[in-house]
Design goal:
Length: 342
């Protein structure tokens, strides 16, 4: 059974549907990332699940109990939902331990202490228990916010862009920490982000959201390698959309032959080719020229102008570097698989 079940939920603000007939089922212990551009309705979806908004239609079930829809509306404090926000939302006048204990008011003293200690241990901040939020780093504050969300042992933890206020280096570390903490707590979690890398690297499944709807739901690998549409392909990462002709198991294009992930009816099609599915060979008679490159250390993203006039993105390991202006041959990388898109 699903721990969180959003079924055909719509929520409008005036004429605008922020969430449009959206369904999503999250299993117990699962970490689902909702990935979409700014304004697509991610926060509204979380607020509907948390009980800060009431759906116009549809139902929401948490831990087997209907909390919204069909005449039912359970207020946020009775939904067993923990929330973590981008701006931490800690109480500045309370210490770390008081912040974490805040949601445990209904429990006895011993139980409150046990859960607070356990939550602080889980996030590795026992030694900061008596500090105030302004004495902590951004990453520590976000770990306190997570401890506070987990302490009441919620049925689901909702995280709204929890890393966006942190600088890049800290973000990657905290991302991994938060994932491990959620897994150790065996929490069911929905994490909202507009960051593709974050969604792909953290989640068991990724829900790609656009204009209030989920346009694709799948494992990170599926969402990356088999985008449901051209839009999803472009949103989830760098991509080249190339015309070709299906031969069933493979597609022939002007760059060469790509394997298709599943048999596809013969005929013209467009395929989504990720930059690492192309490779470059130094060749003074080659079919392309390097026009730009971004060096990332482990790999390099090249922009190359193909003889057909189009610009392609090619990502290669940085073992061999090509100078701008260099003539190269672009071809499908060994066993490159590319999915058809509309
Ligand atoms: P996201 O979190 O993906 O950036 P939001 O859920 O915050 O998107 O917003 C989705 C859409 O709904 C936006 O167009 C936003 O302006 C609108 N919206 C959200 N909350 C309200 C509100 N309380 N009143 C009016 N419009 C809102
Ligand atoms: Mg938002």
């Amino acid at each position: 059974m699903s721990d969180v079940w959003v079924e055909r939920v719509t929520k409008s603000f005036g004429p605008h549907k922020a969430v449009a007939d959206l369904s999503l089922a999250v299993a117990a212990g699962e970490l689902v990332a909702v990935l979409g551009p700014s304004g697509c309705g991610k926060t509204t979806l979380l607020r509907l699940i948390a009980g800060f908004e009431c759906p116009d239609s549809g139902t929401i079930t948490i831990g087997g109990r209907r909390v919204a829809g069909q005449g039912e509306f359970v207020p946020p404090e009775h939904r067993r939902v923990g929330m973590v926000f981008q701006d931490y939302a800690l109480f500045p006048h309370l210490t770390v331990v008081e912040n974490v204990a805040f949601g445990l008011a209904g429990l006895g003293r011993a139980e409150r202490r046990r859960r607070t200690r356990q939550a602080l241990e889980l996030v590795g901040l026992q030694h900061k228990a008596s500090n105030y939020p302004d004495e902590l780093s951004g990453g520590e504050r976000q770990r306190v916010a997570l401890a506070r969300a987990l302490a009441p042992e919620p049925a689901v933890v909702l995280l709204d862009e929890p890393f966006s206020n942190l600088d890049e280096a800290l973000r990657a570390d905290l991302r991994r920490d938060v994932e491990l903490i959620l897994r150790e707590a065996e929490a069911t979690a929905i994490l909202v982000t507009h960051d593709q890398e974050e969604a792909l690297s953290l989640a068991d499944r990724v829900a790609v959201m656009r204009d209030g709807r989920i346009v694709q739901l799948g494992s990170p690998e599926e969402v990356y390698a088999r985008p449901a549409s051209r839009w999803a392909a472009e949103f989830v990462g760098d991509v080249n959309v190339i015309s070709g002709v299906s031969r069933g198991e493979c597609a022939e294009t002007e760059l060469g032959t790509f394997d298709l992930p599943s048999p596809t009816p013969a005929g013209p099609l467009q395929i989504a080719v990720r930059p690492e599915q192309l490779e470059l060979v130094a060749d003074s008679q080659g079919n392309a020229e390097i026009v730009d490159r971004e060096f990332y250390g482990h790999d390099v993203l090249y922009r190359v102008r193909h003889e057909t006039g189009r610009t392609l993105l090619v990502k290669t390991p940085s073992l061999e570097l090509f100078e701008i202006g260099r003539r190269v041959h672009v071809r499908p990388a060994r066993s490159a698989v590319a999915a058809p898109v509309d």
